[in-house]
Amino acid sequence: MRNLTIGGSMAAISIIAAPFAVVGAVGAMGFGSAGVAGGSMAAGMMSAEAIASGGAIAAGGTVATLQSIGAAGLGVAGTAASMSAGAVVGASTLGISAIASKGPSSMGESTMATATGLNRPFCAWTSW
Predict the structure, then answer these.
(1) Dihedral, 96, 98, 102, 107 alpha carbons, nearest 10
(2) Which of 7, 32, 34, 89 could form a disulfide with 94 if both were Cys (CB 3.0 to 4.6 A apart)?
(3) What is the mean pLDDT of the chain?
(4) Measured distance CA(21)–CA(14) in Å, rounded
């Protein structure tokens, strides 16, 4: 039961923290409210895109979208998308906690069968 409580807490925390993590990662790349930081990863991305497209940055492209996030934040759609990604991570944590709380036989196999490869014909390489 304790593992489920921890897993549920991690699920809730990951849903709440995901938008902050996305904005932090975009800011760390060099996209900010004052524009692209010189010498940063963002500057390299912007330079590469400008060279590839003949000197312009495409509206709606990767660099433009990341700069928009860096300058103004995620917005409603971006926040919802990042919270959804956080929910997937949190649900995975909760699932792992649920399996861990049931012990080694939670998948319907005994510890001995798992350790020796019994009842697993494709893993019985010693009998080939």
Answers:
(1) -60
(2) 7
(3) 80
(4) 10
Per-residue pLDDT at 91: 80
**Which tokens go with 94?**
């909760």
Q: Is the dihedral of CA 61, 65, 66, 68 positive or negative?
A: positive
User: What is the C-alpha to C-alpha distance for residues 16 and 83, in angstroms, rounded to an integer?
Assistant: 7
The predicted-structure confidence for 67-95, as pLDDT tens digits, reads as follows 999 999 888 888 899 999 888 888 887 77
Sign of the Cα pseudo-torsion (93, 98, 99, 100, in order): positive
Q: Are 40 and 29 in contact (CB under 8 A)?
A: yes
